[in-house]
């Protein structure tokens, strides 16, 4: 019976790790737990520094590199959209959409086509408050454009200019300031305010001339 117990004990010892300094436990009371310092020179910040995460929690925030400049701040910022909100915007108007307006009798080709005529269609919209500065005529549908028009825009591609001149039309580019655009987008609302035209006085008279001297 004793032989079986001895064999069992020896088999257990073979599977257990060897005793060494790495797996020895200290005697009770050999190490004292660190406590907060007391007194004039024993406490101060208690090793936690000034106000911050080290005083409020026992771990640092993610990305903190113990005083070093973190990696996400070492590289310069690339301002891709600097000044983007100040850039002039030109809402696009395709030649396909312009031909559709003409085919549906929303635009009269016997009269000059400008911002007033385009906004009166109810399809094309310009908002000067959103930094819109006019119309951009794109060449989409240039191969099917067949109307002879006299159109005034603020921006146009070479293909769009060639398509209009190919059928005998005329295209011109003109610049309007924000005051003039407010008057041309909705002339009725602009004149109902009863204010002076200021810088857009010339364009207001031009609009009145075009709409009162056509028969």
TrEMBL record:
- GO terms, molecular function: structural constituent of ribosome
Q: Which UniProt keywords apply?
A: Ribonucleoprotein, Ribosomal protein
What do the Gene Ontology cellular component annotations say? Answer: mitochondrial large ribosomal subunit
Q: Where is this region: Disordered?
A: 24-56
Tree of life domain = Eukaryota
Q: Can you name this protein?
A: Large ribosomal subunit protein uL15m
User: Which stretches make up the Large ribosomal subunit protein uL15/eL18 domain?
Assistant: 93-172
Q: Does the record bear Ribosomal protein in its keywords? A: yes
Family membership: Belongs to the universal ribosomal protein uL15 family.
Alphabetical GO biological process terms: translation
Q: Which Pfam families match?
A: Ribosomal_L27A
């Amino acid at each position: 019976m004793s032989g079986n117990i001895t064999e069992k004990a020896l088999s257990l010892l073979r599977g257990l790790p060897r005793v060494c300094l790495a797996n020895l436990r200290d005697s009770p009371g050999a190490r004292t737990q660190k406590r907060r310092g007391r007194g004039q020179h024993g406490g101060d910040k208690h090793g936690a520094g000034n106000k911050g995460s080290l005083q409020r929690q026992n771990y640092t925030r993610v990305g903190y590199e113990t005083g070093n400049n973190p990696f996400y701040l070492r590289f310069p910022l690339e301002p891709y959209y600097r000044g983007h909100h100040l850039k002039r915007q030109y809402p696009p108007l395709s030649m396909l959409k312009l031909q559709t307006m003409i085919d549906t009798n929303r635009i009269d080709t016997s009269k000059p086509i400008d911002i007033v005529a385009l906004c009166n269609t109810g399809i094309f919209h310009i908002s000067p408050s959103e930094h819109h500065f006019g119309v951009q005529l794109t060449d989409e549908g240039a191969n099917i454009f067949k109307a002879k028009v006299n159109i005034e825009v603020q921006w146009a591609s070479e293909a769009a200019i060639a398509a209009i001149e190919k059928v005998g039309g005329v295209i011109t580019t003109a610049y309007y300031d924000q005051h003039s655009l407010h008057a041309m987008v909705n002339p009725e609302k602009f004149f109902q305010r009863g204010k002076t035209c200021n810088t857009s006085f010339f364009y207001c008279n031009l609009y009145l001339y075009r709409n009162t001297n056509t028969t």
